[in-house]
Amino acid sequence: MTPHALQFIASEPWALETKTLEIIKSIAAREWQIPEAVFNKKGERKSFNTIKRDNVAVLNINGVISRYANIFHAVCGGTSVEMLAKEFNQVLNDPGTEAIILNIDSPGGQVNGIHELAEMIHAARGTKPIVAYVGGSGCSAAYWLATAADEIVLDHTACVGSIGVVATYVQQKQDDKDVFEMVSSQSPHKRADPKTKEGKSLYQAELDELADIFIDRVARNMNVKRDQVLTDFCQGGTAIGQTAIDKGMAHRLGSLENLITEYQKKRKTQQSMSEQFAINVTGSASTPDVIAALKQQFPEAISTIITDAKKQDEPSALEAAAEITQQCLDANVPSMLASLLASNITKTEALKQIEDAKAIKNACAAAGIEASFDTIMADRNDLGKLIGTIIHEAQADKEPETNHHINQTGNQYAIDSNAIYAARRQGN
């Protein structure tokens, strides 16, 4: 067994039976052969950190993150910002990659370089889906990167958070003896002593400034207020699975395989839709040819698009309230004003309804049932009811003794249609 594998097994908590753990130990003895087998089975390895699964690129961010690639990564594992940035740009610009998954299992790493990489990921939002998946740890610098993606998906046992910046200051010694440094008098802060109040204050201010940038970026990336990050995002601690989601630190639970399958299915659905809605035009078709083909093959869709476009260009009835009000008054149909302004219709549609109402009012006047106008207009959107109401109103006007159902207000007379209907129900 290699030292790297033994160290990993000894340092991790395991929820396994003793026999199962022994099996893992035996597998770990072949740890350098296993990754290649997994890559060959599950997808094509495109570069050091990237595996391609059909249209989905999985960019692995594992181990301690440092700024530059070096031999430490090859021997002990880990990830460099330098390599991550290069590979991220490659898959982002790859036309065959339709989704990017940042597969994160990292305790964090150096602050240097993390801000630039996170900003690069955040700026790429909208180009193609970018999802951060955390199956183990996504802490500190790794969580910073995760928040830059469109979405954070967690395994039930994944741990995220640890927002903050830590620094360690070591007093130099040589052969168990203190080594003293002399600093130019013009540069008293070049080697501040953290054991002094002034030195501690200088180092603390530097850490706080870096932490402020970290917190501000997390708030922006997760679309929350800075105060929410300070109070709800564990204050430098971590949260696991559903608890992290409840706090707003991630979006949903899931697994890496299901996430990859989800985006593979989206591609198949898009391909199916493109086949279903293929436009039959030649390769040298001009713009008019394409428009003609669309109108011929999808007439209803094109008609709807044109209608919607016209509606967007027209003012609403509410926006033209002054003109609509005047038109209602001129047509002597003021009772329509409230319903026209409250409805979600265009100015043109409102004016047409006023013209229709004016025509109905004139027809009622010609038939001698002008007083029935409001009753008839109440059923104008239901043709069956409208015809029935007109017939009833016309019959009521011709019935004998209609004077018993006429109301007089000063010199004005109006037929009481409600009284007529009541009399009919009683057989009078």
From TrEMBL:
Query: Which residue range or ranges hold the Peptidase S49 domain?
Result: 126-268
Report whether Metal-binding shows up as a keyword of the record.
Answer: no
Instruction: Give the PANTHER family listed for this entry.
Output: PEPTIDASE S49 DOMAIN-CONTAINING PROTEIN, PROTEASE 4
Matches recorded under Pfam families: Peptidase_S49 (PF01343)
Enumerate the UniProt keywords alphabetically.
Answer: Hydrolase, Protease, Serine protease
- Per the UniProt entry, what are the Gene Ontology biological process annotations, in alphabetical order? proteolysis
Q: Please list the GO terms describing molecular function.
A: serine-type peptidase activity
Q: Which family does it belong to?
A: Belongs to the peptidase S49 family.
Q: Which domain of life is it from?
A: Bacteria
Q: Which protein is depicted? A: S49 family peptidase
